[in-house]
Amino acid sequence: LEPVNRYETNLYNSIPSMLAIIDQIDRPNIKMLIDTFHMNIEEPNMIESILKAKDYIAHVHFADSNRWAPGRGHINFPEI
Q1: Tally of domains within the chain
Q2: Nearest partner of 40 among 20, 58, 64, 12, judged by Cα
Q3: Which run of H or of E encompasses 59?
Q4: pTM value?
Q5: Residue range 34-49, pLDDT digits in tens
Q6: In this structure, what are the phi and psi dihedrals at residue 35, rounded to the nearest 5 degrees?
């Protein structure tokens, strides 16, 4: 499951909202895909959100703030 920013959907926009639905589903095979592009819009603190969700993350999309390759926008990837 992937949290997608509020400009593209009105459902599950943030990691905390996705964690809540994963907890409700309560199945060990349900995991999360996180995308740094969407996180840049929705997460107040990307690192804190990643750490909270670390046990639920199965896949990561790395894209910068402009959807280009990492390093072409303003996300601090070395920090992440």
Answers
A1: 1
A2: 64
A3: strand 57-61
A4: 0.92
A5: 999 999 999 999 999 9
A6: -130, 120
C-beta of residue 52 within 8 angstroms of C-beta of residue 16: yes
Residue numbers of the domain that contains 73: 1-80
| Chain centroid, CA 79 distance in Å | 15
The number of angstroms, rounded, from the C-alpha of 61 to the middle of its chain's C-alpha atoms is 9
Residue with tokens 């199945």, as numbered in its chain: 27
Contacts of 79 (CB under 8 A, 6+ apart): 47
Amino acid at 55: D
Q: How far is CA 2 from each of CA 13, 71, 77, rounded to the nearest angstrom?
A: 9, 22, 20
